[in-house]
Amino acid sequence: MQVTPSGNPVVVSPRATPDDSLDGKQNILGLDRAELKDAIAAIGVPERQVRMRTSQVWHWVYHRGVSSFDDMLNVSKDVRAKLADHFIIKRPEIVEAQYSNDGTRKYLIRFADGNEAETVYIPEEDRGTLCISSQVGCTLNCKFCHTGTMKLVRNLTAAEIVAQLMIARDDLGEWENPTEGRRVTNIVMMGMGEPLYNFDNVKKALEIVMDEEGIQLSRRRITLSTSGVVPHMERCGREIGVNLAVSLHAVNDDVRTDIMPINKKYSVDQVLAACANYPGAHNARRITFEYAMLKGVNDSDQDARDLVRMIRKYKLPAKVNLIPFNPWPGTDYECSEWDQIQRFSDIVYEGGISAPIRTPRGRDIMAACGQLKSASEKKSKAELAREAAAVAAANQSDASHQGAPHHTSTGLT
Ligand code: SAH
Ligand code: SF4
Questions:
Q1: pLDDT at 386
Q2: Does 118 sit in the ligand 1 pocket, CB within 6 Å?
Q3: Average pLDDT over residues 164-187
Q4: Cα–Cα dist 18/130, whole Å
Q5: Cα dist. 175→64, 220, 243 in Å?
Q6: Span from the CA of 16 to the centroid of ligand 1 (angstroms)
């Protein structure tokens, strides 16, 4: 992987070739206000109408969820025709929607260039949370995370990030009654990828989502989770203003570096100091520390006491979310014993810090934290296995012809 001077990994950019399915038109889904205004001005809508038309189209696309210009009833017929000549309102494709028996829904979404990411809807009694991806894969390779094992990585565009919410709202039938009948009440940037390594697109997407004349989600209902990309944490608070969650998972550098390689770059102390400086961090708006419970790795009583000590040292208004480790095929880790998770939680509570244990959701459809990895990638492994078998068979017959052994690398580990 290449690294830029700022230290951010370079990811492959989305394919720049035109998307045939758009029929030569511009897809306006995911444009922000300024872009939409420019696009509308550029197709020859009279200048004095541009502002009004932009507001109208914005309302229909983001508040009402329509995907046809014919439905935009307060827009004059001739302008509707002009819009339809040049634009299209197109969601990415849902390749697979899986519904868990606990109500969790997982969507596998394929973008125009064929790359895929997952989005998860988690209904609870008092809220419905959508877990959104910010990248295809992730460059950070945390050892306990399935997403981190994906090889192909690229940033999602702002449009692709917003589209995940649009698709979930379609599936949940939420547009009929956009404000009262909300089923997605909260958003967490906790799907695939490190959102702070895709800062500009994530910021733009969240601004679209928070717009008062569009989807209207309050920043208080949005949480961004980072593995601790220190240089961008302050910016996140200042420029986006959403709640912050930090994947801590260990409080000493040895263990954290072992399970989260990013700790080599930004140590536990640096991460906690950045939390202390997070704009707007006060008691009403605490920082959440995520802590995956890994048996024999980070789950001792001493670890719990150290966690309390560190949070106190930095005087952090914090809450700890204990996540029972969610296993995935091929992982070396195990989830801590239930009693130990409970003990850990008690110790942190006794230290005056709230430490609820997160109930795993959607485990039956592999939709829980850290289990996301697109099916195409899983399939390609199966394909690789088939290819490897074919190569091995070919080699065998070669070897029997030539009497020389062949060595093949299947890429499978
Ligand atoms: N990349 C961001 C956001 C996504 S992950 C981040 O790391 O913060 C959401 C949370 O699930 C993170 O705290 C992540 O560390 C955690 N997680 C990853 N794999 C997990 C697993 N297998 N079991 C439990 N939690 C996991
Ligand atoms: Fe990336 Fe987050 Fe998974 Fe780490 S836990 S590999 S940062 S998605």
A1: 60
A2: no
A3: 89
A4: 30
A5: 6, 22, 26
A6: 31
Does the Cβ of 132 fall within 6 Å of ligand 1? Answer: no
* Amino acid at the residue 304: A
Inter-residue contact 139 to 1 (CB < 8 Å): yes
| SS3 assignment, position 4 | coil
Q: Could you say which of 118, 160, 174, 290 is catalytic? A: 118
Q: Is 369 a catalytic residue?
A: yes
Q: Is the pTM of this model over 0.85?
A: yes
3-class secondary structure for 18-73? CCHHHCCCEECCCCCHHHHHHHHHHCCCCHHHHHHHHHHHHHHHHHCCCCCHHHCC
Q: Which residue has the tokens 């006794």?
A: 350
pLDDT at 393: 62
Most confidently modeled of 179-183, 292-296, 382-386?
Answer: 292-296
By the 10 Å C-beta count (0-12 exposed, 13-18 middle, 19+ buried), 393 is classed as: exposed
Q: How do strand 135-136 and strand 243-247 relate by DSSP bridges?
A: unpaired
Tell me how far apart the alpha carbons of residues 109 and 119 are, in angstroms, rounded to a whole number.
Answer: 8
Res 402: pLDDT? 36
- Point out which residues pair with 131 in neighbouring strands: 120, 188
Single-letter residue type at 327? P
Scanning 186-326, the segments in alpha helix (DSSP H) are: 199-210, 230-235, 253-259, 268-276, 301-313
